[in-house]
Write a structure and sequence with these properties.
The chain has about 375 residues and is mainly alpha-helical. It has 15 helices and no strands. Helix 1 runs parallel beside helix 13 and helix 9 packs parallel to helix 11. The protein starts with 10 loop residues before the first helix and ends in a 6-residue tail after the last helix.
């Protein structure tokens, strides 16, 4: 737990974060276009855009260790860490959840009945899981299910800060063992459902945060010098392709294991990219890194834009309704542009405001 930041901002990883957010947008664009306009308008590969979430999880583990690894054993820093994490995810989530609730109160068209439950609403604001997911128990904002895992990881990471790295090793080892047991049980007895909340705590996606921590430690202790970085890029790309291809072909419990293969590939890509950027050998457009900066807004907001614009499609006049792919392109552009506006005019001011509200915050 001793990795220290060497320049917390890494433009290449932000650019990759932007690409991952774009993949999620493709997924939801595909889903809504099939529902509103019919199948076949977008490539079937868009169906797997939700795998961009795996990059978010690995990267989240990397960033937390990269920025806060040196806080291990310094319990006086726990409050500052917790407030920074709270300020990072909660203000925009609360604002957009409230906006969705306003829509539900005014219209509610297309909203599943379960989302009107007071328990669902309360847990949506608190980033708490509910039993039954993914069949039921979705938050008010569907995409915010990932934030439940983020909140769990942020909470668990308080262990090394408060109790030191040695205690963290026991917690991490136990967590990995639980995830492994769930994977084995899922393959050996797929009809056996793991009880709540153990199913949430032991969900294989949580392993991706721990992989990210491992990458951050490896970046500082075992950097990919010289040609090793290029080899890691190739190997990481191959593992990502293998994980995605297997995920697309296989149904059932083995799918979770294939997402771990994808995550391993992503971990290698992150490790290699950090070294290449530090060596000046990897330069990506600043605009792409800016999209990465805005990726949280893009992730939470794009569904509003896609849902609204594709709901309008049936009522468009003939010249526009006869060109559904053109409307999808426009929807994609508007989703991105409006998300950047949300980032600039809502997420950033809210985050700054909440950070200032904590007295005696570390600067």
């Amino acid at each position: 737990m001793s990795a220290r930041p060497s320049g917390s901002y890494l433009a290449s990883l932000q650019a990759f974060r932007g690409l991952a957010a774009a993949l999620v947008v493709f997924d939801h664009l595909h889903f809504h276009s099939e529902m509103r306009q019919g199948p076949g308008l977008l490539p079937a590969a868009f169906l797997y855009g939700h795998l961009g979430v795996d990059f978010f999880f690995v990267l989240s583990g990397f960033i937390i260790q990269h920025v806060h690894g040196a806080d291990a054993g310094h319990r006086e820093r726990a409050g500052d860490y917790a407030w920074r994490r709270f300020a990072r995810i909660w203000p925009l989530l609360a604002a957009l959840t409230t906006l969705k609730l306003v829509y539900m109160a005014v219209s509610g068209a297309g909203v599943r009945d379960e989302k009107f439950s007071p328990l669902v609403i309360a847990t949506s604001y608190l980033c708490l899981p509910l039993p039954g997911w993914p069949e039921t128990g979705w938050p008010v904002l569907d995409v915010a299910w990932t934030l439940r895992h983020e909140a769990l990881f942020y909470t668990v990471f308080l262990v090394p800060i408060v109790f030191g790295a040695r205690t963290w090793r026991w917690v991490a080892s136990t967590w990995i063992a639980l995830i492994a047991a769930r994977l084995v049980l899922g393959v050996a007895a797929p009809e056996q459902r793991v009880p709540f909340p153990l199913d949430f705590v032991a969900h294989p996606l949580n392993l991706e945060f721990l992989l990210g921590i491992g990458v951050a430690i490896a970046v500082e202790r075992w950097p990919a010098r010289g040609g090793r970085a290029q080899i890691e890029l190739l190997l990481g790309t191959a593992l990502c392709a293998l994980g995605v291809a297997g995920y697309a072909e296989i149904e059932g419990p083995l799918r979770d294991g294939l997402r771990i293969v994808l995550a391993l590939g992503l971990a290698l890509l992150i490790h290699a990219s950090v070294e290449l950027e530090r060596a000046g050998a990897l330069r990506l457009p600043r605009a792409l890194a800016y999209v990465g900066d805005a990726s949280y807004s893009l992730y939470l907001w794009h569904g509003f834009a896609i849902g609204a614009l594709l709901a309008l499609w049936p009522s468009l006049p003939a010249p526009l309704s006869d060109w559904p792919r053109g409307w999808l392109v426009l929807t994609f552009v508007v989703s991105f542009a409006s998300s950047l506006a949300v980032y600039r005019w809502l997420e950033q001011p809210l985050t700054r405001l909440v950070r200032r509200l904590r007295p005696q915050a570390r600067r």
